[in-house]
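Reminder to self: keep the SMILES exactly as supplied, no canonicalising. Ligand is zinc ion.
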Amino acid sequence: MALAPESGRIREKLVRAVSRVRRKLSFPGRFRRRGGVPIPRFLRDFRVPLAATLAAVAAVAGTYLAAEQHVLAETRTYYKVLVNGQFAGEISSRELVAGLIEDTRKRLEEANLHTKVRYALREPEIAFLSEKAYKAEPDDEETLRRVAASLETYPVGVKLFIDGKLVGVVRDEQTANALLERVKDRYTNDLEPAAKPEVRVLSFQAGSTDGGSDSSVGNAGEDTEPAPERRLLSVGFVETVSVVQAVISADEVQDPEELYEMLVTGDPAPVKYTVQPGDCISCIAQKLNVPKELIYRNNPWIQNDLIRVGDELDLTQEKPLLNVETAELVTRTEAIQPQVVYQDDNQLIKGQTKVISQGKPGEQLVTYRVVRLNGQPVEEEQLSVQVLSPAVPKIIARGTKVVRGVGTGKFAMPVLNYRITSNFGQRWGRQHKGIDIIGNKNIMAADNGVVEFAGKKNGLGNAIIIDHQNGFKTVYGHLSKISVKKGQAVEKGQVIGIMGSTGNSTGVHLHFEIHKNGKVKNPKDYL
Ligand SMILES: [Zn+2]
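Structure tokens returned for the bound complex:
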């Protein structure tokens, strides 16, 4: 765009004219230093700020035109403008076109702030053909209007890929990133990030040993365990996510809210199930091959596994497109259950126990590293345990004293390899006061005791009655042989006679009764 080489004289005059213009307009220093350069050059270099440039272009152009008219004896340079190869008109300055394009771009950027779909300016191919003519007066305004009309825009957006697969389109990167953050937030909202987890844990421990210990011990007995402290260590997507700027078609842009739902749920078809007779939670889980946890999670109204025929269960299984893995540090105060310590006590009858002291649970601070997938724990690792207050053991005395002839209160079956042939209760219109047993022929004492009776009894034939000296007595009937004597102490399991069919009996068996405080009882309740 250099001026014609032959016009050295004209150029000199032009330079002088420009100096005048410059003084008049008092341009900034940068402008002034370039005084020797022809106007179009430094106008082209002077790009920002645009408004100032445009004003300057107008002002300079106006003054320039006036000066030129005076100096150049009516000979002017102007340009033919070609947009994308098409003639658009004539213009007095190339910068007017550049300014128009720049201005259009700016307006578009501003408009983009408020629209659902963003548009970019398709870069036009602009060519200028330099012309010179006497008294040329190009219609700048009309040419600029035509250039403006030939400018084109196209929709742009951001594509969201998960593991290389396109899952959605949003208007811009900011929207995409906000969406991804929101998916992460869904599982980390209640967690505070841990800047320096180790330091935090140590300071927490130190704090609880001075001053905090009294109240925490006081709480130990009650069921008011403080909520665990959770601190976020890391959060990330299981899948590879990429956000890519792209040319799109305007109707591709999605509502971020819908896209969010799809990312976190996979938009599954709802599945309902009506409880049938005989159903239970585990049965349904097994029958329909869904995890039990899903049933509980989707149907929080279920209490104590109680479901009724006709209840409708939501069994919809979400298949998130984006899975969030979080690692967190969980610090929990846990009870330490007291150890049980037995002490032998020779004052206490063998088989009996007595609690000497209940003991007291202790408290410990346990730190775990918990990995969760979409909020559900998948891994838990215990990192440290700090005992805040040790547990006090529970002490139980255990009797060692053996007293002959006193029962333990617990009965053993008097026959080995036994089979019960007749039960306690009504039989043939009469009360059957015991049970009939067959099996090994040796009859054993059902518990420790003293023989109260050994001999013949009406109906029972050869019979033995043992007084266990604790309110219980046992009766053994129909024996073929009696091996003990009245007043003799017997031990539980000791053979006291041989099975037979004496007395009112139709076959070899043992008739066995248990009496408690003088009343006959069903032996089956004690064996
Ligand atoms: Zn009987």
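Points to follow up:
The radius of gyration is 51 Å.
The chain has five domains: 8-152, 153-193+235-267, 269-317, 324-398, 419-525.
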